[in-house]
């Protein structure tokens, strides 16, 4: 019975999104920031709704989205919509739900956290789309999130480079209010474990946000006792692993975020070279 409900709801929502894309897709395009690429700012919202529903329905993510969409049917009268593919759709659906899980961890959703999420979408999709993402996030925050079930579903559909980028994003969210709380770090650790991210890679991304005396070595996933050749080898391996091209299939928005992580790897290597006097 529940499965039938999701199928019916999915058909209704997809029909709704497509009908709105015909009437509202071009109406307010001029309002988007001029520096965005054509079609990027205005399609962020429906890009992952239309695509993400294809894999979300029938699982725990479908249950969370089903409620949120039901509420948005009552509240939303229009916007900028378009139907796109599913590569970046999967990532953005996952990003919103895991954002909600981290934000709820310390029983206090802060304005700085909401602004962090909104800023991400403003930069990548434009202001109008970002406001719609935040509406969706607010509804997801009202739901109980079974982290294990959600991460299992994400893990089944998302490739490993995308999982690493997702972890990098939620670490940034945890730091949005200026400090990490133990409960937030615990949830982030659970997410990493459930997504199958190795301890070394978790520690590497953690070190990009929580600076310690050996952070540069942790970012490169080596010990401070490593030889100069081991340092150089580690950097080459990390550069390949975290190159932005690894997540280019998720869209320009995710690639931009990946470039920041890649730069952290380069900065860590430069710091070690300077300390050791390496060329």
Q: Could you walk me through the main structural features you see in this protein, from its secondary elements to its overall organization?
A:
The structure is a single chain. The protein is an all-alpha fold and 279 residues long. It has a domain at 2-156. The protein is 69% helix and 0% strand. The chain is built from 13 helices and no strands. It has helices at 2-24, 44-56, 60-75, 87-103, 111-125, 127-140, 147-157, 160-174, 182-194, 199-209, 215-219, 228-241, 252-276. α1 runs antiparallel to α2, α4 runs antiparallel to α7 (147-157) and α5 (111-125) crosses α6. The longest helix has 25 residues, at 252-276. The radius of gyration is 20 Å and the shape is globular.
Question: What is the gist of this entry?
Answer:
The protein has a domain at 2-156. It is built from 13 helices and no strands. By secondary structure, the chain is mainly α.
Our Rg estimate from Cα atoms comes to 20 Å
Approximate strand percentage: under 5%
How far apart are the first and last residues' alpha carbons, in Å?
A: 66 Å
Per DSSP, the total helix count is 13
Oligomer: single chain
Annotation, overall tally of beta strands? 0
> Helices and strands: which structural class?
mainly alpha
Q: How do the helices and strands follow one another from N- to C-terminus? A: HHHHHHHHHHHHH
Helix content: 55-70%
Shape annotation: globular
Overall pLDDT confidence: 73
Query: Main β-sheet, in a few words?
Result: none
Uncertain regions spanning at least 5 consecutive residues: 1-8, 14-18, 20-58, 70-86
């Amino acid at each position: 019975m529940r499965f039938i409900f999701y199928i019916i709801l999915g058909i209704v929502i997809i029909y709704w999104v497509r009908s709105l894309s015909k009437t509202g897709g071009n109406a307010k395009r001029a309002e988007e920031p001029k520096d965005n690429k054509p079609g990027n700012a205005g399609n962020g919202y429906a890009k992952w709704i239309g695509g993400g529903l294809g894999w979300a329905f029938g699982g725990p993510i479908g249950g969370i989205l089903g409620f949120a969409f039901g509420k948005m049917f009552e509240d939303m009268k229009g916007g900028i919509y378009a139907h796109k593919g599913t590569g970046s759709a999967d990532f953005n659906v996952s990003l919103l739900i895991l954002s909600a899980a981290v934000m709820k961890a310390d029983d206090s959703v802060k304005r700085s956290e909401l602004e962090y999420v909104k800023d991400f979408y403003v930069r990548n999709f434009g202001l109008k789309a970002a406001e719609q993402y935040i509406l969706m996030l607010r509804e997801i925050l009202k739901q109980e999130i079974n982290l294990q079930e959600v991460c299992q579903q994400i893990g089944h559909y998302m490739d490993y480079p995308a999982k690493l980028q997702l972890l990098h994003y939620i670490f940034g969210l945890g730091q949005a209010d200026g400090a990490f709380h133990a409960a937030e770090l615990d949830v982030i650790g659970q997410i990493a474990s459930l997504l199958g991210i190795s301890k070394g890679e978790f520690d590497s991304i953690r070190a990009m946000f929580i600076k310690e005396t050996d952070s540069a070595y942790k970012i490169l996933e080596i010990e401070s006792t490593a030889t100069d050749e081991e340092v150089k080898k580690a950097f080459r391996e990390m550069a390949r692993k975290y190159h932005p091209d690894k997540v280019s299939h998720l869209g320009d928005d995710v690639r931009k975020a990946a470039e920041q992580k890649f730069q952290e790897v380069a900065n860590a290597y430069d710091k070690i070279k300077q300390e050791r006097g390496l060329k």
